[in-house]
What we know:
By secondary structure, the chain is an all-alpha fold. 74% of the residues lie in helices and 0% in strands. It contains 25 helices and no strands. The longest helix is centred in the C-terminal third of the chain and has 15 residues, at 301-315. The radius of gyration is 25 Å and the shape is globular.
Amino acid sequence: MKQARVVFDKMPERDFVSWNTMIVGYARNGVFHEALKLYGELRRLCIGYNGFSFASLLIVCVKSKDFELSRQVHGQVLVVGFFTNVVVSSSIVDAYAKCGKMKEARRLFDEMSVRDIPAWTTLVSGYAACGNMESAAEVFYQMPQKNSYSWTSLIVGYAKNGMGHEALGVFRKMIQHRVRPDKYTFHSCFLACAIIASLKHGKQLHSYLVQNNIRPNTVVLSAIIDMYSKCGSLETAKKVFELNGNKQDVVLWNSMISALAYCGYGTDAVMMLNDMLRSGMKPDRATFVSILNACSHSGLVQEGLQFFMSMTSEHGVVPDQEHYACLVNLLHRAGCFNKSATELQVMDPKPGEHVDNCLLGLWGKLESTKLEREVHRFPFRLQLQSSAAYLLLSSVYVALVKRGTVEKMRQIMHERYLRHDQAVT
């Protein structure tokens, strides 16, 4: 984008097409502030704009999941009369859906005079992302026309919501309708097999790939390895990795390390990571999540600590909340609780809800006067804004038979205007 910006700035004349191109570029590369800044400059120049100007801006809305921004863009679209543009209206529906505002998305969809396949599919995906598979399926079967992406969206929804049998059922219908599945379809189907731990269905799906001469890419191979390991066939997972894997792809190495960790072979996972490093592959954040979990579940404390300490110093990977949560579990399982608390206190950045709740869960298993004081100070020291952490904290006090303190904690929650998340409740 830097080179594109240099060329753009040197252009003697720039029309709205040039501006749209730059806005799209920034939006697709995640540089949202520059995309919004350029859009603002374009509007102030009064050189004109078209539907693609709004479509470019809506990419920012979709990727950032910014509901207020989406509403503002929707308002501008209505004012200038571009709502009849199916690309623009579909993008607004997508933006609302990505923000989890399905009522707004559905109302807008119903107002559209023209609805193409992407618009229908967007609604299916939106409902699926919110866990409302009943509505997702209802919309899907109402579609006048469907393509591979439409079928895959429903399959993905079922798989990600833990409904493996339903996902595979839709896949069978997809094949019966002679719709060609893509890599995302197969990835979700293997995920579905792993969810229901059905080695039979997993093998059938793998055979389908071989019989139809479909060469799986990295994403699908990763899902195959995961499926076999979670269905109790680790040796087959190893064979898939050895025979088909591109040893220059970190995703496949990560999948194999995760498979070993899942099956309880922590030492083998460490050896696999060492082999990966010797081959010249560079580990990423997912690699360290997998290996820290492997070390945690196999009691390999020293190895886990060494990998954690090497993340930034040797591999340039900055630990995030998930890594610290793995570290807490690793130390706690080894009985190093005080070290867990010390590590969290010096964390940079501060731990988030994932780590907070993990640490509180560990504290709930301990009993001491000092612990009670630490637990009481914990939400104030980290300035937690999550009601989940406070609810878990109350559970800790219940375990310590401190009913008076429980009521005090609930009062603190009320004073901080925290709401109970429905899912947590």
